[in-house]
Amino acid sequence: MSGSVPSDQSHLLKTMANARPDVDTVVEHVLFLPELCPATLNPKPGSTLTLRYQAGERLLELFSLDTYIDAFIGHPVVRDMEFFVQTVALDAANALGGEVTAVADVTFNRLRQGQRITVRATPTR
Fold first, then answer.
1. How far is CA 5 from CA 14, 16, 28, 87, 98, in A?
2. The whole model's pTM is what?
3. Domain hosting residue 81, numbered range
């Protein structure tokens, strides 16, 4: 996947109208990540991905956001956490038409380390 091409899952990410676009609002979605890799069972439970954006005309729709994240379970291409966070940030920015910051706090099975990955994405379409 190149940086300007949406992921195969991007169509699952829906938005809804912001009832008060005139009110200065910052939205943060804190997603508790599922085990995305069936082989390693990573990331470990408790790992999170936070999506942060300035609300405009559109907001990310909660139920589709869960469905979208679940579509990455066992994904054949988006396999490492860095690529996953980059992909989600870019798809969200494209869906909203504005900048999105994604921060993943991840712990792993069979490793004595975690990762914090921060991606700032702007729309490419």
1. 17, 22, 24, 9, 16
2. 0.92
3. 10-121
